[in-house]
């Protein structure tokens, strides 16, 4: 997700190595202006939180159902960002 957003940002003249800064930029320029549905801001935010928890938490386990839901959201997100990259 980070690299998809990074590609979108680069296409629009923005670059950062910070996840939170990139997420903020995405929300400001694509979610708040209505270019993309708010559900994608939540998908990105949830993914970042889960990644942080799993990287820095003591022990994080995800159920099979949770992983399947994350995978479905990821595929939806990638397809949507890909459309933005190809259309703009």
From TrEMBL:
<protein>
    <recommendedName>
        <fullName>HEPN domain-containing protein</fullName>
    </recommendedName>
</protein>
<dbReference type="Pfam" id="PF05168">
    <property type="entry name" value="HEPN"/>
</dbReference>
<dbReference type="InterPro" id="IPR052226">
    <property type="entry name" value="UPF0332_toxin"/>
</dbReference>
<feature type="domain" description="HEPN">
    <location>
        <begin position="1"/>
        <end position="82"/>
    </location>
</feature>
<dbReference type="InterPro" id="IPR007842">
    <property type="entry name" value="HEPN_dom"/>
</dbReference>
<comment type="similarity">
    <text>Belongs to the UPF0332 family.</text>
</comment>
